[in-house]
Design goal:
Distance between the termini: 20 Å
Mean pLDDT: 90
Low-confidence stretches: none
Helix content: over 70%
Strand content: under 5%
Order of helices and strands: HHHHH
Number of domains: 1
Largest sheet: none
Number of helices: 5
Radius of gyration: 25 Å
Shape: elongated
């Protein structure tokens, strides 16, 4: 996802920008849903790891340097376990991605509001508009080719 690029508005192509708004929102809504699913999966994995470690510690407390089995000793041993810490980090990373996806989705909504405001300004002749109607299908195709070209060049750069 290229948040900054996707949020930009070409004020000379408001008609094209409007046509792209709904698909853009859907792209980020889907991204948010996937991030939310990832958080739930990471949380489940963390809970399972905690339960597994709890059972292992209770069965063999001596393997975890526990002299007296107490809830506090078990909790401390779980928190200090490397596998648990890795699962917890994956959960925290997933939460971060979900928060970023939510912010991006909100920003796309704000982009829609900005487009609406710019169209109002255009209707009030704030911007100088072209005197000849534009070919929207050609303009949209050109913009998509430009975007595809930028993505392809980034992929080539990332391979090197």
């Amino acid at each position: 996802m290229n948040y900054e690029q996707d949020l930009r508005i070409d004020d000379s192509s408001l008609d094209i920008e409007l046509l792209e708004q709904a698909p853009l929102f859907m792209k980020y809504a889907k991204h948010f849903a996937e991030a939310q699913r990832d958080v739930e999966n990471a949380k489940q994995a963390l809970d399972i790891k905690r339960a597994e470690l709890d059972q292992l510690i209770r069965k063999n407390p001596e393997n975890y340097n526990i002299e007296k089995v107490t809830e506090g000793a078990i909790s401390s041993s779980i928190l200090m376990n490397k596998q648990y810490q890795e699962c917890n980090q994956a959960f925290l990373d997933a939460q971060y991605e979900k928060n970023m996806a939510a912010n991006a989705k909100d920003a796309v909504n704000q982009r829609k509001e900005m487009l609406e405001g710019m169209i109002k300004l255009l209707a009030q002749q704030y911007f100088a508009g072209p005197s000849v109607p534009r070919d929207l299908s050609k303009e949209r195709e050109l913009k998509q080719k430009q975007t595809s070209g930028r993505i392809a060049s980034k992929l080539v750069r990332n391979k090197h």
